[in-house]
Structure formats: C-alpha cells, structure tokens
Amino acid sequence: MVETIYLGAGCFWCVEAVFDRLNGVHKVVSGYMGGHVKNPCYREVCNGTTGHAEVIKVDFDAEIILLETLLDVFWTTHDPTTLNRQGADRGTQYRSAIFYTSDVQKEKAMWSKSNVANTYWDDPIVTEITLADVFYPAEDYHQDYYNLNPNQTYCSIVIPPKINKLKQKFSHLLKP
Q: Which of 11, 41, 46, 155 is catalytic?
C-alpha cells in the first residue's frame, strides 16, 4: 500500500538525506511545489519569486511505516517554528510545509501539528498544511545529492547533525 506525501523542511538536500534512510520509504524525489510558475528551475526557486517551496516527494509503504511516524521524524529533524527559514537558509522556498494527498493525510497532519509537534517545540508551529498541487521534480543533479556529494561543504556541515538526530531518536526505523 504505497502512499505519497510531500514535505518541505528547508533545503531539500537535507530533507531527502533524512527520509531516504527510513525503512518503508520506497523513493524520495527532491522538487518544488506550492508556487505559481510552471516548470520552475532551481535558480528561479532560489530567487524566491516563484512561490515554490523546496520539497521532497516521499513514496512510502504505510504497512511498514505509518504516516504518523513520518510526521514524527519531520517535526523532530527540522525547526517548524521559524517562518521561511531553516538555519542559514532564508526565504519562502525554505518554508516548513506538509502537502497532503488525501483527507486522511490532512487530518493526521493537522492532529500531528497541534499535538505531537508541541511536545518538541516551545514556540508556535508555523508549518503550512496544504493540499498537494503540481509537483515539479528538481533537476537531476539535485537527486540523491547528499549521498553523491558528502564532502561538499554544505553537505558536510549542515546535513550530518540531522542524520545524527535521526539515528539517535529513530534508529529502530532505519533501513538495514
């Protein structure tokens, strides 16, 4: 039973690196969603003029990993209290967002935002929860970026703490 959900939590390289390691996640694709320009490219999205968020498309087997579990990882591995920002990455393209594909996903995301997320964060959650729209896959060189470029400066500084947090809190969910 494969489902799809789209998650934005800052730079898609970071988010992809985290979710790709989870057992039950079949495929993660970096891309763009939530904007007003058709077929945006990375430069346009980075300029912040298209309205798109950098997101990942997560195809997961709901019989192996529950949506609630994915959302728990989502809330834990980024800061959903900072509007349009994750660390040094600033702009609407880095906003915290959940783009759901069904009413059930919407209900679970809303519940998770109001209940689970508050156990991790003292400040108000600013994550948007929106019906999924057109997903535009990012350019090929963005796919599996961290695994292919672990020594790139951004990858070697920003992503390892997120993966370490994943390993500390969710080691039981990792792929063998």
A: 11
The β-bridge partners of 130 are: 99
What's the rounded Cα separation, in Å, for the pair 84 and 128?
11
Count of the separate structural domains present in the chain: 1
DSSP alpha helix (H) spans, the chain = 12-19, 42-47, 67-76, 103-114, 145-148, 153-170
Q: Is the pTM of this model over 0.90?
A: yes
pLDDT tens digits, one per residue of 6-15? 999 999 999 9
155 is catalytic: no
Range of the domain at 54: 2-173
Secondary structure (DSSP) of 80-131: TTSTTEETTEESGGG-EEEEESSHHHHHHHHHHHHTTGGGT-SSPP--EEEE
